[in-house]
Amino acid sequence: MTENTQDAEDVVQESFLRAYRQLGRFDERASFGTWIYRIATNCALDMVRVRKRRNQAPVTTEQPGDAVPELPSLDPSPERLTLSGEVRERLAVAMNQLSKTERAAFVLRHYEGLRLEEISQVLECQPGAAKHSVFRAVQKLRRALEPIVSPVR
Amino acid sequence: MNHLNEEQLVLYFYGEETGVPDAAGHLETCSACSQVYSSIKRVLHAADSFAAPQPAEDFDARIWERIAPRLPARHTFLTAPVWQWAAAAGVLLAASLAGSFYPTPKPVRTIAAADPQTGERILRLAVSDYLDRSQMVLAEVANANPRRPLDISVEQESAEDLVAESRLYRQTALRTGDAAVAGLLDDLDRVMLEITHSPARLTPAELEKLRDKLDNEGILFKIRVLGANVRAQQATAVRASGAERKS
User: Fold this and answer.
1) For labeling, which of A97, A122, A140, B9 is most exposed (least CB within 10 Å)?
2) pLDDT at B37 over 90
3) Shortest CB distance from B67 goes to which of A16, A84, A116?
């Protein structure tokens, strides 16, 4: 969600501190994991918001020349590596164009494996709204990536 | 049967409720839906390349180092009046003596009774050690490979010892009016008992159930916070006694 390692570590640190301070307010009816996710998501969204306000580009900790992430393949040919890089670039742009809620919902569903019900608890919205956010995110990513991941290419 | 719409296909991909009976069967027979579904799958698999990198091995320790100094000390269980700590330490020592932990019981018991501050220090060390050992048992379960059976016979032995020890700390917490700490020790006890009573070799399903319980109660995080507080109190006490000796 934060797009770089340093910011992600800051978010983790801030999340645990917030969790500690708010421990007394933890409602035992909810799962502790969901509660922590909610805090971490809010911290990440806060960071993205502040960064946007300052109009800062995310600080990339990766150095030029770092390995390009590959798509799963048994044949890492140069063409495939180039394609992986292109997919990643387009994906980064597309992820950036998602709304904050869409992005958070997609990250929680796709990368963190949370169920829609849990996502709605984390984002404090109705399950239908969480579902819609995930769906909108996938739609936007499809629009951006379909042309380069389609097999006719 | 009507075709599945894009939203239903996305839900199907993620294993969520689509509201369509036998969506899988439909996808096998309908080439139009199957084509759209393949496209969704390709895009979402490509999105995997954007996944966050796995944190470095020392990530937990590094984050903890950054957090620990910023945690305020609590002012109940850990800063209980010296006599309460001393009383608890006395009980602790007696308990240890009963288990022949100390080879020369009499002098140790006298020290604890005559010097409340020493008693207090002993109890803090014991609590700190108790929390460290609890953390190790739980971390073993939490970090185990979820796809393989796990032999927890060693952890079960530790859990049994920990359960026997925890009663004293819980009583101290209750006496000092810290229901939250007493509650945490209670939760910890329940988890330890569950570990003790589990089969020595956990199947992946049993392991997952146990890990879910740990996750849902956030017990590891709470133990770490309490452990950090105890250590902070220890450090403060050491500094204070050093200053006292100088003056």
Assistant:
1) A97
2) yes
3) A16
